[in-house]
Structure formats: structure tokens, C-alpha cells
Protein 1
Amino acid sequence: MKHRTTILMTEFITHDVKRFIVKKPETFSFTPGQGVELVIDQEIWREEEGRPFTPTSLPTDEVLEFSIKRYPEHKGVTDKLHTLKAGDHLLISDPFGTISYKGPGVFIAGGAGITPFLAIFRQLAGAGAIAGQTLIFSNKTPADIICEKELRHYFGSRCHLICTREKGKGYENTRIDREYLQKIFSDTKQYVYICGPDKFVEAVNSIIMELGFSTETIVYEE
Ligand SMILES: Cc1cc2nc3c(=O)[nH]c(=O)nc-3n(C[C@H](O)[C@H](O)[C@H](O)COP(=O)(O)OP(=O)(O)OC[C@H]3O[C@@H](n4cnc5c(N)ncnc54)[C@H](O)[C@@H]3O)c2cc1C
């Protein structure tokens, strides 16, 4: 691992997602959408392979932010990360990945798959370039939605928050299938960004291809 960093603060942003603010290593830089491997710099955990996470801060910020969902049943890295405190250390790899902003379009995310898009949205919002783009963000319940207020602020009526296990005013209770996506897309000349669990990405990707989008306009983590 290339860089060593220190956790400055942590806080819950949903019931099972924590924000980690860490020192930005001097020689570290990234493009919004890219991921890094994180290793917990403690005995035993140092021997574990790194796990991929995505900075949700801006490249110009003085610190790095990560938004990390905990999977207690895995008894793995995310479970341990959620117990760490300010002053604990992490090891960070150089950035990697195929998700980056290419041009206006529709962003489709499932759960923690919103993280690469958060950095992109924050950069677009800062540049006044987010208007007219669309977000489809699927979660189990409203309580699972990361940064809901911020996303509604950016996308307004183009913010589609889907909840698959709960109905509620302001949330769509639907599956992301062909019929649903057909209603969202006005043409196939825009970019489609997809991020989420592997099965989610595969399923959405194949519908998007069926709708006639070319592979050059579909952006996802390969
Ligand atoms: C490019 C990329 C960027 C990502 N960015 C983020 C991000 O910014 N934020 C975020 O929250 N997530 C992100 N993720 C997902 C994140 O990497 C995983 O959630 C994380 O690696 C899980 O690590 P873990 O050690 O807790 O569990 P795992 O490594 O998944 O599992 C640890 C152990 O638990 C076992 N296990 C696996 N599944 C189960 C199960 N269902 N029940 C019981 N045991 C199980 C495994 O066999 C393994 O031995 C990203 C993923 C990728 C690919």
C-alpha cells in the first residue's frame, strides 16, 4: 500500500453507513469516481487484502472523505472499520477504476453504489453543471438512502428514489426493469452511469443495451 493516513473523525450518515474523514496524503490525487484499496493499519488487519472504497470528497478538498457501509455478518473489514476512531491509521492504494464523468446523462445506483457518483455530483454542482441530469437511486427503505437531502437538492424532480421494501410519499416502489427505464430515457444519445452490487449492474446493463444504447455511452466499474 502506497500511502499511510490518519482518521480525523467519523460519524453516522445512515443507520449502517459511516462517513470517515481522513488526512489526505501529500502525494495522493484522484479523479471523482475512482476507487482505492483501504487496509486497516493494525496487527492482523494489515495481513488482510485491501477492500475497495471510493473517495466521496472533491480532489481539491484538504481532506479525504469515505462513506462506508458496514456488513456485520461478514465479520470483515467494514465491520472493523466501523469501530475505528480518530487517530487510527489506514493504508491507501493509488486510485483506480473506470467510472468518471464523460458528459450529461442518467446515473443509476444501488445502495453504496452511489459513492463514486457522490464525488462526481459534488464536482458538477460546484461547477453549476448538474442541471438536466437524472438520478435513479434504489435502496431497500428510506432509512438506507445515503445523502438523501443533498441528492434531492441537486436533482429536484429528476431525483428518482426507489425503495423496494417500503412504500412512502416521495419514494417510488418499483423494480428497475425495461418498462421503467423506457419511461425515463428520452433518447439513446446520453451517457448512462451504473454502479451497485454486481447483479444490479449486470441486470441494468443488459436492459440498457436492449434499449439501444451503445457500449461507448455506458459507464460502469469493469
Ligand atoms: C470499486 C469499488 C468501490 C467501492 N466503494 C465503496 C464505498 O465507497 N463504500 C462502500 O460502502 N462500499 C464500497 N464498495 C463495496 C465494498 O468494497 C465492500 O462492501 C467491502 O469490500 C466489504 O468488505 P468486508 O470485508 O466487510 O466483507 P467481504 O470482503 O465481502 O467479506 C468478508 C468475509 O465475509 C464473507 N461473506 C461475504 N458475503 C457474506 C454474507 N452475505 N454473509 C456472511 N458472510 C459473507 C466472505 O466469504 C469473506 O470471507 C466498493 C466496491 C468496489 C468494487
Protein 2
Amino acid sequence: MREARELLDVPTQGRESTRKRLVIEVMVKSDRQSQLSRRTGLSQALVSTTVQDLAKDGIVEIDAPGGGRSRGKVRLSRMRGVAVGVDLGFNHISVAARPVDQPHDRIAVRRQSPGANIGFRRLLPDVLRLIGEAVEETGQGMADVVSAGLSVPRMVDPRTGKFTTPVLPPWEPEDQPAAELAAELGVPVVMDNDANLGALAEQTYTSEEAVEHVVYVKASTGVGIGIVVGSNLVRGRRGMAGEIGHLTVDPNGEMCLCGGRGCLDTLVGAESLLAKVKQSQRGGARDVPTTLSALVLKARDGDAVCTRVLNDAGRVLGFALAQLCNLINPHRIVIGGELAEARSMVLDTCRQELARFALSGAIAPAADFELRASTLSPYAEAQGALILGLRCRSSR
Ligand SMILES: [Zn+2]
């Protein structure tokens, strides 16, 4: 069987670079040629001749024209090779591994606690073990891993691929998780912010069109958003774009980890939501949840306080997102992270506040705006990391 590594290891220059770029994009997602053209920025004519070339060499196959959703789609021929995506959260590690010739929902996944809160060095052996388990589940081995991407809950400077300073806890300025993982895996590893990668995965895997404007909200320990406009991820000059968690929503509010005051994080971050539940139950003998997941579970079981806290979180989030709708008019806002597990308890109030504060034309008609929970959760970020890892091979 052909090895994906042979295709990805060719030098990136001239005609080969176009072939490599397209092969990688087909590994990311099999698609129609028009969509491949939009995703790569290559002209339709160039995509067409290159795809025919690749088909002649047995590298890709083109689904027969005719009826059905897969009509005219370009697929990768059978070959060995596994792409890996790793998501390091504050309280979890998630890993997704997928044979490059399989569709995006055929991933092997692993997830466990704790996460980055205990420090990256102590986490690395667990990360490697989980990757090993997931890769083994695909029926291939660690020697077949051809790419890897890493998602982190911090800002990443797009020019250097390292943490943007100042580096907030629990990370240290000298931490270089991508480089350490690359040394262990023997493939280049690129790193990006978790919300950015959630947005990338949602836009790639759940949008029909390659140019939809998608905002992904990662709401867990803190809140961050990833913004994809057209086919571009908006990172900003220093990777600070989308830090909505530090948008001031109460000028006289509490101090935040970032040094600001009244940030969205101080109202809807996990710590704040847990503190609100604790406050209402002070002096009582009832169990108080200590994690956001536990809080959501309690609300689902009908606990009135936990339900109200989540309703309120949806309201504040909706207020902040309404400003965003007026600024960039997204086609879709996808809520991910642990808060998304609360579903309608957060989404309903969020929707109400969008209706109160956003321009009506920015959130209607229904065909042009959607607010929903992530369907890739809890692996959206790991899936995005997997995409990023593959794409970085087109320049290395
Ligand atoms: Zn802040």
C-alpha cells in the first residue's frame, strides 16, 4: 500500500507544491473540486488539471458524476498514514487520530483529566500514551503518524508559533509544548489557540460551503472565540484576536486574571459560575459542584440554582455575542466547551439576548444566521488541531 509519508515528505516547490497542497486538502476532507479550489485559493483550472494528474497516478479517486451527495468528490486512494490532533485544556487532554484516507468522523479518540493545570512537563507522558492508544485503534502504528497539531487554551503568536507574551498561568514563558511533542513524534507539530481550532473544525467539517463566516465559542474555564471569515482564520497581529473573555461587560466588575476588570470571564468563566452556586448555598449542607461539568449535570437533574446560574451565563454571553454579530455578521455561531453541554439552558437565554441587542438584520433571516451547540464537541478543538497539523505539512 502507498505511504502518505512519501507524498508529504517531497520538497515544497514548483509543480510538486501544488500537488502536495491538494493532496493535503483532500486528506483534510474529500470534497468537490470547486470547494477544493476555494479552500486552497488555487484556480479551478489548476485544481482540475492537478486532480486529473493525481488520479492518473492513483493518488486520488474521483467519485462518478451523478446523483447523491458524494457526486464528483475527490477522495484519497487507500494509503497508510495517520494524522493526529491534540487538545490540551486546563482540565483535560483530548486526542483525535484518523487515517488520512478516512472521512473526518472516522476518528479514534481519547480523553482524560487532568490537563494543563498540573503543568505541561508532567502531562507529556500521558499525552504520548493517549496518542499511542488512539493510533493503535486505527489499526496503524506510531511510525505511521505523518502529522500532528496542538490546541492550547492560550494566545499563540502566528509569526512564531509560540505563546504570546505575557504568558498567563498555568503556562510558563519557556514552555514550548509543540517543539517537545514534535521531538517525541518525529513530525513537525504546530500549535494554535483552542477556540481558533474549534472554529477551523466547525467551518471545515460542518459547513457545506468553504467560505462561510463561522464563530466558535469555547466556553469552559474561560471564554474565547475563534473567527473564520471566508476561508481565513482571523488571528490578529499577535494572536490576540477573539479574546472575547476579556471584553469588558461590567466596567465596575471584579478584577480578572488578565489584570482588567469586569471581563466576560469574570461573569461566565467556570470559576465564577461555581462561586455563584456556592454563594447561594452557603451555610447549607448540600453538595456544591466543584467543576463546570458537575454544575451542568446538577442543573440537568433539575437543581434550580444551577439552572439559574446557567441561564444567566447564557444571557451575559448573548449580550457579548450581540456586539460581535454587529461587528462581523457571522453566518454561524457555534458554542463549544463544557458550557455547551448545558444546551438549551444556555442557548435559549443567549438567543434572547441576541434578539435584544444585535441588529435584527445581523441575526435573521434563519437561512443567514444560526446559533447552535457544537456537533463536534468535545473533540472540535482536537479535530481543528488535526487539520492544522496536516496543513502545516504543505510548507514543510
Ligand atoms: Zn480579563
